[in-house]
Write a structure and sequence with these properties.
This protein is mainly α. It folds into 2 domains: 177 residues, Alpha Horseshoe (Leucine-rich Repeat Variant), CATH 1.25.10; 102 residues, no CATH class. Helix content is 67%, strand content 2%. It is globular and about 60 Å long. InterPro entries: ARM-like, ARM-type_fold, Armadillo.
Length: 305
């Protein structure tokens, strides 16, 4: 009965959004956003009820910031439903979301667009290719990682989601996109970001994927990497999501091919948290045991959202 009631509520919200009245859209999008947060089954229901078809026209219209923020929040959660990335990406969402990253939109709108874009790109090669080749996403995203003279990015949340989006682009689009990011100065930008108060996990994922696509970058990435912070992110902590630990694990594995980096990682206490992270990942196919440490069979990439 409760499940049927929630499904009915979601259906009603989607219908209300379809009317496209700005006041109704603001309230319905906010409610739909909140009912989906942390609830994949609710997102699946919303997707089946046609939420994508009513949210995308709202995002393509010129509306008040509050409406856009609520609609972007609802879309961010909706993208966790099976099949949503494919359907939403096929209907122009990549280009629309990248358009919201420009400075003529408020920071609050840009932050929510970044969160939605990170979910839209997560592990989805076609959406990532659209972002690179149709929407010029790499320079647009890189700007959110740049720090001010005071040493901080314009938005800590925005920086994390921009790094996640870039990590997914590099992982799924290939060496050419990775080289484009490098040519745009991404290494210096991330080096500065790692000295800020931004949480480092997403930046570690980006560096891991760059070193996976372009192994020769390891010699440049190693000196700029705060090794102790990599090990600290690997340690179990309630504030550290599993994917953050996997990002640190992938970066550590890729850097460990360099002798000096391996020595520093071991001195920083890598072994125990690394073994714990590997065991908790539930994927023994990615690693092999030798006499001294867990060693990855091949360079590692990580997908973030």
């Amino acid at each position: 009965m409760a499940r049927a009631g929630r499904a009915g509520a979601i259906r009603s919200l989607v219908r209300l959004l379809g009317r496209r009245a700005e006041g109704a859209a603001r309230e319905a999008a906010y409610a739909l956003w909140n009912i989906q947060v942390g609830q994949r089954d609710h997102a699946a229901t919303a997707f089946r009820e046609g939420a994508a078809a009513v949210l995308l026209p709202i995002l393509s219209a010129t509306l008040a910031d509050e409406v856009l923020i609520n609609a972007l929040g609802a879309l961010t959660s909706l993208l966790l439903a099976a099949g949503a990335q494919e359907a939403i990406g096929a209907n122009g969402a990549v280009e629309v979301l990248c358009g919201y990253l420009e400075d003529d939109h408020s920071l609050a709108v840009r932050e929510r667009a970044l969160a939605a874009l990170a979910n839209l790109l997560s592990g989805h090669g076609e959406n990532c290719r659209k972002a690179v080749y149709r929407a010029m996403a790499i320079p647009r995203l890189t700007r959110f990682l740049e720090v001010s003279p005071e040493g901080e990015p314009p938005s800590l949340l925005g920086a994390e989601n921009a790094a996640a989006a870039l990590a997914n682009i590099v992982a799924t689009t290939g060496p050419m996109a990775a080289q484009t990011a490098v040519d745009a100065g991404i290494l210096q930008v991330v080096s500065n970001l790692l000295q800020s108060s931004a949480r480092p996990a997403q930046a570690f994922g980006l560096l891991a994927n760059l070193s996976w696509q372009l192994p020769e970058l390891g010699e440049k990435i190693y000196p700029m990497t705060p090794i102790q912070r990599v090990v600290d992110v690997l340690k179990p902590h309630e504030d550290q999501p599993p994917r953050g630990r996997l990002a640190a694990l992938a970066l550590a594995a890729n850097l460990a091919s360099l002798g000096p980096a391996k020595a520093r990682l071991l001195r920083a206490g890598l072994l125990k948290p690394m073994v714990t992270a590997i065991e908790s990942s539930g994927d023994p196919a990615n690693y092999e045991q030798d006499s001294t440490q867990q060693r990855f069979k091949r360079p590692c990439a990580t997908t973030l959202s």
